[in-house]
Structures are given as structure tokens and as C-alpha cells.
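Sync notes, pocket subgroup
Present: LS, DG
LS reminded everyone that the earlier model was apo-only. Rerun requested with iron/sulfur cluster included. Inputs:
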Amino acid sequence: MLNVLLERFRQGYRTIPYPDVPPVLPDRLRGLPTLDFSLCEESCQKCFVVCPTKALSKDEQGTFMDLGKCLFCGECEKVCPNGCIKFTSEYRLSVRKRENLIFRGEHLQRAEPLEESMKSIFSHSFKIRQVSASGCNACEADINVLGTPGFDLGRFGIQVVASPRHADAIMITGPVSRNMQLALEKTYFSVPTPRFVIASGACAINGGPFIGLPDVNNGVAGGSLKVDLFIPGCPPHPMTILDGLLRFLGRLKQN
Ligand code: SF4
Ligand code: SF4
């Protein structure tokens, strides 16, 4: 026991000073890209062809990247001969509305906080029931990381709980296989109202790498649950999840 205490003393305070100090993230982290499709050559379709989830697409307003479908694999950046797509380590990606994930390289409308009446209830005590709806376990692992001393999710009053009856929200990961659909719905309806739905990861948002497969529901896109917070990534970095949650609860300045 003495050794444990001595080791604890030696290690000192390990929790990151976020949000007072911005996090230090590695350059190799792929977060929000910069997009400049004005540099494209007319006939070049290389990024469209290489994208595994068809996250890159075109409409009457031009080419866009759907951050809800993007796996942040970086393949489009690699094949682009003109440097139109460049990933940055910008980790703040969460939004409240699905359409805000349609990214054209301009301003990203990050998650707005809950309305005032809800904020006063949940901003300092928010319980989450995590539902792994057939994910690969990477999204789940990065949620688990938030419970370690480095991030210490509990200091914000946010806690992952075992029972939906003790929860304020469900956080869905995975593409929602047909086998998990009923369990997901039952879990949702077991959460007392007012309740919230968080889709964390490309799978939960739109099916991720499993998009279009017959045994999955393409995440929340194929179901009837109304989503209150979308957290992109494959998997989302723990800082992306934390940033999204704190924005949602009105604990961060908006930008
Ligand atoms: S980084 Fe995203 S948009 Fe680019 S190829 Fe991968 S999944 Fe497609
Ligand atoms: S979004 Fe990516 S990391 Fe998360 S469950 Fe799906 S495949 Fe795994």
C-alpha cells in the first residue's frame, strides 16, 4: 500500500488542463480537412473513386465532403494531385444537425448548446448509457479512455452509467445491425424523459465502413431516433467526443 501511495505521489497530477488550455494533439491526427476544389482538374475523379464510403460527392453547389460518412482514412488526400484536400489536426467536429456535416471547406457549424431550461438541468450532471450497436470496439475504446485520469470525464459531471434508467442520454456506436435494432430501441425507451441521443462515430451516424450492407441499418440514418448530437470520426478522437459533449452541455464557448 505504501508503495502504491509513493508511486501515486511520484506521478503527480495527471489530468490534462483542458478546457483551460487547448489540448496538444499530434500532427498526424486527421481532423477537419481544408478543402479547395477550385484547384481540381475537370476530368479528375481520383478522390471520388478511392473513397470507400462515397463521402465525397457533388451537387449543384459543387463538391463536398460528408463528414458523417468520412472515415478520415486520408486516401483522398493521398491520391489528389492538386492538394485540394488537406487534413488538419482540428478535432472540434461535433454538430447538432446532420446537414451541418455536409462540409464544403467553409465554416463548420459546431454543436450549439442545449436550450437554457435543459442546460440548467444537465450542464453539471449528465449520465450516459453507451449502446454498442455492432461497432468494431474502437469507438467504444475511445469513449472508455475518457474515464481515465488523463481526461477524467467525471470532473465535468459526466458519467457513463450501467442502466438506461439512470441515464439522461444514450450514446450509440456501431452501424446498428438488424440484430441490435430492437435492443437499441428498448434501451432508448427505458431512459426517462427528457432524453437525448448521441451518435458517436461514422458507423453510428451513417453506417461507416459497413454502409449499405444488408445486415446493418446504416446507423441512426436508417432508424427513427432523433439525434441530438453527431460526433464524426472512425473512431472519433477522445478530445472530439469530449469537445462535443461539453459544447452540447453549454460548458464551452462557441466557435
Ligand atoms: S478521408 Fe473520408 S472522404 Fe477521404 S477517402 Fe477516406 S473516407 Fe473518403
Ligand atoms: S466508426 Fe469506425 S471505429 Fe467506430 S465502430 Fe465504426 S468502424 Fe469501428
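DG: The mean pLDDT is 95.
LS: The helical segments are 2-11, 46-50, 75-79, 116-122, 138-144, 178-190, 202-206, 238-248.
Action: DG to write up.
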